[in-house]
Amino acid sequence: MDSISVAAVSVRELPAERIAAWDAYASAHPHGTFFHRAGWRDVIEKSFGHKTHYLLAEREGGAVCGVLPLVHVHSRLFGNTLASSAFCVYGGPIADDDATLGALDARAVDLMRSLGADCLEYRSLQRRHPDWPCKDSFYVTFRREIVEDPDQNLKAIPRKQRAVVRQSLERGLRYETDATVDRFFPIYAASVRNHGTPVFARSFFRNIKETFGEDCEVGAVVAEDGTPVSAVMSFYFRDEVLPYYGGGLPAARKLGGFDFMYWQILRNAGERGLKIFDFGRSKVGTGSFSFKKNWGFTAQPIFHEYQLKPGGSIPEVNPLNPKYRLFIETWKRLPMPVANAIGPFVARNLG
User: CA-to-CA distance for 182 and 130, rounded, in angstroms?
Assistant: First the structure.
């Protein structure tokens, strides 16, 4: 089926000549995010080979009225899902009105069935489908307004965590930005291995940087002797900054490398006039959840809404699922060369 029309709304897959219109719409929509940008289509297809279906809703005359980025991830180990948007924390449908949302939903459900997927999954900061099965108590995000004055931003951090940040500022650390992912990747790869998680291929991060350019910042925290101890890839969208992929070596904890790194990003963003610091997604009850809460951020639910095939159930592909416990503990013990060699073949299917 090439298109579905509902209340004078037509839906089609995004053609190359409409990419700029798609991005302009996502940037202007109040619920648009960095993960709605059309560049993710190329990143995901190029990095993982998954088929994408970026659905563009238009009214007569060609005015964009909604977008829905979909990625089909089919894996024997992790299931068969059509997700908006896979490999991203947000990216559910955004639309001008209910008629447009309904048109996008109809096309997405039709795709789910034609592809034989087990489910259709939307990831959003807003609940748009109260009658759909939903998981909203597992993943949360942390977002807060920031100002230009670094002293005010520092004072907004609770006293105990503020003291930790101040201590990190006295240890001779430096935050440096890089044009490539060469310093970032080995630090990030070691960090996720230590948590029992397979790492994405280096080419995935390289593709992100090449696709989004200055809107993707790669940075590293360097000790006094010049040794990098932590690293992060951050995304910039409108007046927001989101440090998304971050990791550190054992020395980072002793030196306060994580605290220094996130403070420098927050401070720099405020001085640039940005308004929102998005600390990103965490699983409730984990160390990263506690770390972000200690910074004075309030947890905000991420809604995972589903349409399921008949008799289907909400997938539970997450590190806290008991059936993955042995896998995680085994992965933590893998030598780094082995983890980096086989990790991308597993991670490409996690979505």
Answer: 44
**Per-residue pLDDT tens digits for 56-80:** 999 988 999 999 999 999 987 778 9
Query: DSSP state, 35?
Result: G
Cβ(227)–Cβ(176) under 8 Å?
no
Q: CA 11, CA 3: separation in Å to the nearest integer?
A: 5
Name the percent of the chain in helix, strand, coil, to the closest 5.
40, 30, 30
Q: Which residues contact 22 (CB under 8 A, 6 or more apart)?
A: 14, 38, 54, 56, 64, 67
| Closest C-alpha among 108, 81, 79 to residue 93 | 108
**Three-class DSSP category at 243:** strand
- Rounded CA-CA distance 223/291 in Å is 22
Alpha helices per DSSP H over the chain: 19-28, 39-48, 98-115, 150-155, 159-168, 184-194, 202-212, 250-255, 257-271, 287-294, 325-332, 336-347
C-alpha of 44 from chain center: 13
Consecutive 10-residue runs of the chain (351 residues): their mean pLDDT? 61 97 97 97 95 96 95 84 91 95 96 95 93 85 95 95 95 96 95 86 96 97 95 97 94 94 97 94 84 90 92 70 68 80 79 64
User: Which tokens in the block code for residue 336?
Assistant: 């780094």
What residue type is 67 in one-letter code? V
Please give the Cα distance from 108 to 81 (Å, whole number).
12
**Angle at the Cα of 148 (from 144 to 154), degrees rounded to 5?**
60
Smallest CA-to-CA distance from 137 within 314, 351, 330 is with: 314
